Amino acid sequence: MNLQLVGDLVTAALVVRVFGSDVLALLRRAAAAGVRVGISELHQGHTEGKR
Q1: How far apart are CA 27 and CA 32, in angstroms?
Q2: What is the tens place of the pLDDT at every residue in 1-51?
Q3: pTM tops 0.85, yes or no
């Protein structure tokens, strides 16, 4: 491995260490929003079918 590759790997490891938890939190929020949208669509379709 050359010195530049080692530097890139260290930088990548630091970025993951610093921003990893933030990225996971954003992914969790996006997943929760997707679930809420899906549930609201299910409820909307369910109430429209009763009309």
Answers
A1: 9
A2: 799 999 999 999 999 999 999 999 999 999 999 999 998 888 887 666 654
A3: no
Looking at residue 50, what DSSP letter applies? T
User: Which among 18, 42, 38, 20 has a CA at the least distance from the CA of 30?
Assistant: 38
pLDDT score for 31: 96
Alpha carbon distances (Å) from 8 to 23, 37, 46:
20, 39, 52
Number of domains in the chain: 1
The sign of the torsion formed by the CA atoms of 28, 31, 37, 43 equals negative
Range of the domain at 22: 1-51
Residue type, position 26, single letter:
L
Q: Identify the three-state secondary structure at position 13.
A: helix
